[in-house]
Amino acid sequence: MLDIQKIRADFPILSQKVNGKLLVYFDNGATSQKPQVVIDAIAQYYQEINANIHRGVHTLSQLATDAYEVSRGKIQNHINAKHAHEVIFTSGTTHGINAVANGFASLLKVGDEVLVSALEHHSNIVPWQMLCERTGATLKVIPMNEQGELIQLEYDKLLSDKTKIVTVNHISNALGTINPIKEMITKAHQVGAAVLIDGAQATPHLKPDVQDLDCDFYVFSGHKICGPTGTGILYGKEDWLRKLPPYQGGGEMIATVSFEKTTYADLPHKFEAGTPNIAGGIVLGTAVDYLNGIGFDHIAQYEHELLTYATEKLSAINGLKIYGTAEHKTSVISFNIEGIHPYDIGTIIDKLGIAVRTGHHCAQPIMDYFKIPGTIRASFAFYNTKEEIDAMVEAVKKAQMMLS
Ligand code: C6P
C-alpha cells in the first residue's frame, strides 16, 4: 500500500493553487512533476561539484565525472542492461530515436522496409520517414483496431526478410495501450529485423528489463520519470551500438583527430558528443532511486485503481466517449464529449484548477483513424488521488453544461 499523502508531500508543486484552485495535475503523460529530492539534487550539483566531465584531472571534474558514471550505472541496473556502456545519455526520447534512425542510413537501401505502428508519437514516425527519404527504403505501418490495439495478424503479414527495423512504442501516449512488445520483438528477430522500443510512456509506470525483452534499442525521457527536462536514455545492445555510426561529431566522442582522419571513442562516448546535461544526467539517477524507493509494483497497482475508478466515473457522463479501450492499458484516458471541441473543455476545466492535455497529443494518425481533431487526455501518476478524479469529473460536467 502506498501512503499517498506522504508521497504528495514530496512534490511541492502539488500544494500550489492554480487559478485560485488547488492544482489537480493530470498531464503526467506530457511531463511528470518533480520531488523535492530531485530539485535539491540539481542545486547540490551546482553548489558543490559543478565542472565539466571526462576532461579534467582536477578534483571537481573527477567528482562530477564519478557522479555522472554512478548515475549511468543506476540506469543500467534499473533497465537491466548487460553493460554500462550500452546506456547512452541523450536529451530525451526524440534524440534517442533520431540517433538510431540516423545510424540506420548507412545500413538501408532501396527495397528495404521500416515498420512503424499506427500508435506512434510523431517522434517515432518522422525520423523514420526522413530515413526512408534518404535511403529509398519503404515505411510500412502496422494497423490498429477500434480499441486502439495493434492488429497482430497484420503485423505477422507485414514482417518479411525485407524488414530491417521495427519501431514501436511500449505504451501509446494518446490511448494508453500497452503493446505486446516481447512477442513482437521475438517475431521481428525471426525475420532478422532489429527492434527499437519507444519507452517514453512506459518508464513512468513500469521497470523495463531490456535483456528479458531482448530489444535492440530502448529509448526514454528523464522528464517523464520525475527527472529533469533535457535528459533521456538510449539503450542499445553493444553489437548494434558498435555497428552504427555516431549521430553527432564533436568533443568527447573521438579517440584521435587529424585533418586527414578521425577515429571514434569507445562506447558509450561515441554517442555522447559535446558537453552533456551533466546535472541532468546525475539527477536522473536520483529520480530513478526515488521511484524505485516507492516501488514499481506498488505504482502499477495503484495507478490501475485510479484508471478503473476514472473510467467508471467518466463513462457515466452523458455523451462522453473514451478512445482507447485496449485490454492492457495504463493510466491514461482520452475522451471527448459529443458536440464540444476538446480545447473548450480543456480551457474551462483549467480555470477550475484541472490540468489535462487537449489536442492531437503529437499522434495525428491516431486522431485521423478516429476522424476527430483531438481528445482531452487525463494521464495519472502515483501521486494522484481518487478525490482529484472526482474534482475532474465535476469540472467536466460543469464545462459540458456551460457549452451545450
Ligand atoms: N509525449 C505527451 O504529452 P520527448 O519530447 O523527446 O521527451 O518525448 C517524445 C515522445 C516520444 N514518444 C512518446 C510515446 C511520447 O509520449 C513522447 C512525448 C508527450 O504525450 C509530449 S508530446
Helix content: 25-40%
Please give the CATH class of the largest domain: Alpha Beta
How many domain modules? 2
| Annotated CATH topology of the largest domain | Aspartate Aminotransferase, domain 2
CATH architecture annotation of the largest domain: 3-Layer(aba) Sandwich
- Heterogens: ligand C6P
- Going across the biggest sheet, name each strand in turn: 4-10-9-8-7-5-6
Q: Could you explain the architecture of this structure?
A:
- With about 400 residues, the chain is of the alpha/beta class.
- It folds into two domains: about 5-30 and about 295-404, Aspartate Aminotransferase, domain 1 (Alpha-Beta Complex), CATH 3.90.1150.10; about 40-295, Aspartate Aminotransferase, domain 2 (3-Layer(aba) Sandwich).
- The chain is built from 14 helices and 17 strands.
- The longest helix is centred in the N-terminal third of the chain and has 21 residues, at about 60-80.
- The radius of gyration is 22 Å and the shape is globular.
- The protein starts with a helix and ends with a helix.
- The mean pLDDT is about 95.
Descriptive keywords:
17% strand, seven-stranded mixed beta sheet, 17 strands, 404 residues, Aspartate Aminotransferase, domain 2, 2 domains, four-stranded antiparallel beta sheet, globular
What is shown here, in short?
With 404 residues, the chain is α/β, with parallel strands linked by helices.
Give the SSE layout.
Elements: H1 4-9, E1 17-18, E2 21-22, E3 24-25, H2 36-48, H3 59-79, E4 87-90, H4 93-104, E5 113-117, H5 126-135, E6 138-142, H6 152-158, E7 163-169, H7 181-190, E8 194-198, H8 210-213, E9 217-221, E10 232-236, H9 238-243, E11 254-257, E12 262-264, H10 278-294, H11 296-315, E13 320-323, E14 332-337, H12 342-351, E15 354-355, E16 357-359, H13 364-370, E17 375-379, H14 386-403
